[in-house]
Specification:
Layout (H helix, E strand, L loop, with lengths): L2 E8 L3 H12 L4 E5 L5 H6 L1 H18 L15 H25 L3 E4 L1 E4 L5 E5 L2 E12 L3 E3 L12 E3 H4 L8 E5 L3 H12 L3 E5 L11 H13 L3 E3 L2 E9 L2 E8 L2 E7 L1 E4 L3 E3 L13 E2 L2 E2 L12 E3 L10 H16 L12 E3 L4 E6 L2 H6 L4 E7 L4 H6 L5 E7 L5 E8 L2 H13 L4 H4 L11 H8 L15
């Protein structure tokens, strides 16, 4: 017997469960279907566990280096099983919280593998049981899975993706990371801090190629300082099994090279998860591997919507959340205010990296007249107090109006501070508008004021440029 809802969401990741809760709050009878854990990849195999591991790795490194502050710690060590336990405990508490929120808001939680049928019913398979559901509106929010590239030997046991890496019971002695994007550099940071010998192989001319060029260059230097070998403009050619691991053959700028490691990690991005989602006879328009949607997130099937990594170019949890909230408002008759054109990107290395809007390089390509303000964090008191890695804040403004167009940060607390610039760009604030704010001292945030002042060369804690 069919059960009918106003809305069914397939996928309980960040976009899916948030959309379900918001829709329920707006009065829609709502169900969410998930065959794995609630929270999706972000909570269970991505953002949250990675950041927990990064926190543990940073804490270990900080304790080892505490002599810088006059504090001496002898025989500092770590227990990887305890780090994993801490990571799992964090994820578990967040999962429990999500389940409580779904229940409290009257969202029906359905466990099983969901298939969208051609008559727009949903078949759910679970423990040899088959049930059918129907809804006025359906949201597809099944996220993404790790991408693969055709390299000989990539299917060997011990060649991992980012999800596999979290299943290891011991710290790898050595690791080759194929891919220098966000996932790759964060994993390099975690395991290099725990004494894993890391070799990173990236096909593009620079790491994190979608970020500011200066940030990419600084990140490469930081990783090398931490003992990570970085090869850019390099292509992995072959992986062979050895006695204690793998022999990786790659080409760097036309030159053949080899490196051995206990494990190989492929961190070459993620692709939409459509596997088993559509039943026989279902035809839905695609945009490459993504599900195609219009401006209202509706697919080519009326009443069926897709959000998050399944349909978006921007594969970030907060983008999926914002889309889920906006769509729930539209379906439930609420008011939506989210501006989905301004989405920040963050990397949780040390120092942290954050970016929003356009870069100076992009502005030049688009022939946009800009002024740039940059402040080196070596002049920031909180940075000196904490002995943080040297970094900077860069602000991109329109050359005539002074409207904030972009910001790139590489410094402690960058991922928190970028929110100021997201607000500024969303509301088309100018440099003068942002300078109305008095930021407390001593804080990392007061460096934002200095960067804004430097748009016109007026920063206080900046040495004047020498006249030629």
């Amino acid at each position: 017997m069919e059960k009918t809802f106003d809305l069914i969401v397939i996928g309980a990741g960040p976009g899916g469960y948030v959309a379900a809760i918001k829709a329920a709050k707006l009065g829609l009878s709502t169900a969410v279907i998930e065959y794995r854990e609630v929270g999706g990849t972000c909570l269970n195999r991505g953002c949250i566990p990675t950041k927990a591991m990064l926190h543990a790795a940073d804490l270990y490194k900080e304790i080892k280096e505490s002599e810088r502050f006059g504090i001496f710690a002898e025989k500092v060590s770590f227990d990887y099983s305890k780090i994993v336990e801490y990571k799992e405990e964090t994820c578990s508490k967040l999962r429990e919280g999500i389940l409580s929120l779904l229940k409290a808001n009257g969202v029906a939680m359905i466990t099983g593998k969901a298939i969208l049928e051609k008559d727009k019913t949903i078949t759910v398979f679970h423990n040899n049981e088959v049930k059918t559901y129907r809804a006025h509106s359906i949201i597809l929010a099944t996220g993404a899975v790790p991408s693969k590239i055709p390299v000989k030997g990539c299917q060997l046991d011990g060649v991992l993706n980012s999800e596999d890496l979290f299943l290891l019971k011991e710290v790898p002695k050595s690791l080759v990371i194929v891919g220098g994007g966000v996932i790759g550099v964060e994993m390099a940071k975690v395991f290099s801090s725990l004494h894993t010998k890391i070799t990173m192989i990236e096909a593009a001319p620079r790491l994190i190629s979608n970020f500011d060029k200066e940030i990419a260059q600084s990140l490469k230097m930081t990783l090398k300082k931490q003992g990570v070998e970085v090869y850019t403009s390099s292509l992995m050619k072959n992986i062979e099994k050895e006695k204690d691991g793998f022999l990786c053959s790659f080409e760097e700028n036309g030159e053949n090279k080899e490196v051995s490691a206990q494990y190989v990690l492929f961190a070459v991005g993620r692709e939409p998860n459509t596997h088993g989602l559509f039943g026989e006879g279902v035809t839905i328009e695609m945009a490459g591997k993504k599900v195609a949607v219009d401006d209202g997130f509706e697919t080519s099937l009326k009443g069926v919507y897709a959000i998050g990594d399944l349909s978006s170019d921007i594969q970030l949890a907060h983008n999926a959340i914002a889309q889920g909230i906006q769509l729930a408002h539209r379906l439930g008759g609420g008011n939506t205010t989210e501006d989905l054109s301004v989405i920040p990107s963050c990397i949780y290395t040390n120092p942290e990296i954050a970016s929003v809007g356009i870069t100076e390089e992009e502005a030049k390509k688009k022939e946009i007249s800009v002024k740039v303000g940059k402040f080196i964090m070596g002049g920031n008191s909180k940075t000196l107090i904490s002995k943080d890695e040297r970094g900077f804040i860069k602000v991109i403004t329109h050359g005539e109006s002074g409207i904030i167009l972009g910001a790139q940060l590489m410094c402690a607390r960058a991922t928190d501070m970028v929110g100021e610039f997201v607000t500024a760009i969303t509301n088309k604030l100018t440099v003068d508008d942002m300078l109305k704010t008095v930021r407390p001292h001593p804080t990392y945030n007061e460096a934002i004021t200095e960067a804004l002042e430097e748009v016109e060369g007026q920063g206080i804690h900046v040495l004047p440029k020498r006249k030629r």
